[in-house]
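Pilot study result, target chain (482 residues):
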Amino acid sequence: MRKTILLGLLLGAAGAAAQGGLPLSSFEGQVMYQVMPDRFFDGNAANNAGVNKADPRAWHGGDLVGLTQKLPYIKRLGATAVWLTPVYQQQTQNSFDTSPYHGYWPADFRKVDPHFGTLADFGGLVQAAQGAGMRVVLDQVINHYGYLAPAVREHPAWFNGKAECDASRQKDSDCPLAGLPDLKQGNPEVRDLLLGNAQFWRDQGVQGFRYDAIKNVDGMFLGDLLADDRAAGIWTLGEWYNADTGTVAEWQRRGFDSLFLFSLQAAMKGSIMSGQGLDSVAAVLSRQGELPRPGEVALFLDNHDVPRFAQGSLFEDVGQARTKYGLRALMTLRGVPVIWQGTEIAMRGGADPDNRRDMRFEEKWTPQEKSVFGVAQNAIAVRQANVALSRGTLALLRTPQSLADRLLLFTREHDGQRVLVAWHGGKERRSYSVRLSSLGLSAAPGAVIPTLFAGQNAKIRVSNGFLHLSLPPEDAAAFKLD
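Predicted structure:
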């Protein structure tokens, strides 16, 4: 906590004045799709040096041309923004028997790695995405170089060594992360290099940056970087691993548009996939008032750094059914949903690198995977078609204590439109009757209201001062209120 406060003070001193009065970039209303290009789609076999798909730690051949070819698939799913893991030129050798296929071991921040293609290929991707009405978010590494990058040998003064680490009271920013060569962002040459890198990629037409490992980056430098992004209209998404609401709120105040809300992801995985009760989700949502910009917070079921959401069950069919529940639930929340490639078909996978299996497309899907995709596609479409779900405020309802572990109720409201959301963790179909006054909800009596989601038998009715709900097991539903 002390480290967080110190970084916040530094960032506030550097960035607040520079960003004051500038318009805020916004992704509220967007749905983001995360891609690791090497594991997505191979569009150019000519750049497949060293590819070995049988080895989960080797290059697998996916590239920028392939991603461009598959943009129609992402658009058909309903996503409106694409986040790419880094595409920089990587170190040429393996470390720990692992190739730098993931993009986080950079050697040159202003070149595209030949495995991914060329800078022209990147420009083609950006042009095609924006032509399809989709935004492009690029992953930015600002903490380190790759283990074997030439710069480590050529510019030793750029890096924190053992002496600096031992002497520092700020271990997160002054010591290596996973042994990676740790950049001294306070060094003028390093600062200028990294600020120049950001400008280079802004010039390529991206509309947002996802900043890796911000916990490990000098706060003063972050202030300068975010000020430049704000001035350029770039949306900024920070990764602070395991961030809770308080951490997200602090860094939004200090200049980031968004952070990933890891505490909500953990609560959703525990409640939806592991059946631990919905009260943990309610506890996270109850803190949303702390967030300066709750509509910008990044929400996710899984990503490239954690085991797959569907892996939470030993049984594939159960994992698929609960992923449907998770996808519908995700699309009812306030914030920016992020779907990691393959989650829309309940792809399985354990810890890294198993969670980074090659993406598979329609011609290779099972009927069950097609069904999961259909739920994902419909849930996104429902969200995008309803302004209350995509941009509305979220108000938790006072669910009776006896039901709190299996029933979560909240409303989403925007510009006179209101939606009631119900997450049901019960193992069987159930009907509930809850007095409106106990929920803190007002609604006029009327006819039965069906769920907004296709293929789901869920309904509500208001009568005699009660909210009556008929809900399927382990699922999330949404109902449009008059």
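One observation from the pilot: The CA atoms of residues 344 and 373 lie 5 Å apart. A full batch analysis is planned for the follow-on phase.
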